Amino acid sequence: MKRIDFSKFKLYYDLGDDRLVRIVDWRKELGNYLLARLGGVEGVDLALRVYKSDGPVELSDDEYEGLKTILGRPVEQGGVIAAYYYSFHKNLEPAEI
To answer: Residues 76, 64, 87, CA angle at the centre, nearest 5°?
Structure first.
């Protein structure tokens, strides 16, 4: 299990650059992005959990790997999308057992 707070998402400059640019509320944009790209009940559930969250969202290992895959597809384009993908990994918190 992993946890990420998408309401206080720390956005870093770009791949390999540890300078924090700003803290953003990424819930709505990410929820809509996931809803458009994921099919099935599990995809809708994850999109809504992200969108409606008031703090860290717990992600199963499968959800985490799925998010890595979905968010990693446009990284070749660089720019803002690459910064969000890099920041996604930097925002992980240990999940409580």
So the answer is: 50
